[in-house]
Amino acid sequence: MEGVLITGGAGYIGSQAAKELRSLGYQPIVLDNFSTGRLESVQWGPVIEADAGDKKALSEVLTENQVKAVLHFAAFADVGESMREPGKYLQNNYLTTVALLEAMEKTGVRNLVFSSTCATYGVPRSVPVSESHPQRPISPYGQSKLLAEVAVREFGLRGVLNWVVLRYFNAAGLDPERDYSSQNEPDFRIIPRVLQTAAGLRPALDLYGENHETPDGTAVRDFVHVTDLAKAHALSLEYLLGGGESRAFNLGSGHGYSVREVIESARRVTGRQVPYRGLERRLGDPPALVADIGAAESVLGWKSSYRELDEIVETSWRWYAAGMEPQAAALSQAGNG
Ligand SMILES: NC(=O)c1ccc[n+]([C@@H]2O[C@H](COP(=O)([O-])OP(=O)(O)OC[C@H]3O[C@@H](n4cnc5c(N)ncnc54)[C@H](O)[C@@H]3O)[C@@H](O)[C@H]2O)c1
Fold first, then answer.
1. Higher per-residue pLDDT: 323 or 225
2. Distance 233 CA to ligand 1 centre (A)
3. Domain 180-221+254-289+306-333 CATH (choose: 3.30.1330.10, 3.30.360.10, 3.40.30.10, 3.90.25.10)
4. Which pTM does this prediction carry?
5. pLDDT (tens digit per residue) in 123-157
6. Is the CB of residue 5 less than 8 Å from the CB of residue 31?
């Protein structure tokens, strides 16, 4: 079985990728410092508790397990928090990636799939956004990921690395095949916040910005289901192992939904009200982000299986229906979102 190191494999998307790789016969090896991830989410292979910036720990894991490739998810991913604590993001998302690249060079591990983001595009000139769109991030989170992309490209130019950069738009949903207690959709994201409101765990949704240049004034986002993201990682891995050339791919559904449409979807799926209060636009929030996913479809052969927003919201709502409310209550009391 070929070993694949998954940094951040105890997190929301990384744990799903571990499940996908295991089902295809790879040996996923998770490395995570559990800053946001959870041990219950690691179910498909061994786990090493370490920091993804710890070159010594990385070198040991990479050589002892004859790792063929790395999927690098480990990062902080809250745009709002990055506006308040930019150093935390530049350190963990950029400098940690440089340390990983150095450890890969030292140990001769040549294949990397890197989790990047639509936040690297900043405010798009038009949507849908293709991979060749200029990257001008407007948040420290986006900057930290763009800098990490630059580092990845530099190591590629040195001839020591083959890479795929995956720029996800808004990851969403949960895997209906997985135990719901093992999953963890970050609760600062819009769909969990809307559903927490529907579940009565928040008195009202904070709706940031009703005067964006969008059809209904609220921000438009492109939601891609977490199981589809995991499949794209497996396809990217096979693409690299098959000699594919290094490049970036957008991952989204290719369809934009406004925050108001998310609220409507939650009302349909849950049969409950979603009260909200309108607030000022947040710095770092572009009005509309929608992916052109043509390259991932034609080059990787990727196809998203969740196309409708209601289907995605439904998979998240089942988490509440499965009795996970106490956990959600604890999360919302912690003041997230
Ligand atoms: N969720 C989204 O919508 C989205 C969109 C675009 C890109 N991404 C990227 O996808 C990746 C995964 O995001 P997620 O939503 O699963 O977040 P998550 O917080 O659930 O997962 C991140 C994981 O990385 C671990 N981690 C963080 N820093 C670490 C470090 N220095 N060393 C070891 N482990 C560390 C955390 O403990 C956690 O398990 C991130 O790189 C994020 O930037 C996410």
1. 225
2. 14
3. 3.90.25.10
4. 0.95
5. 999 999 999 999 999 999 999 999 999 999 999 99
6. yes
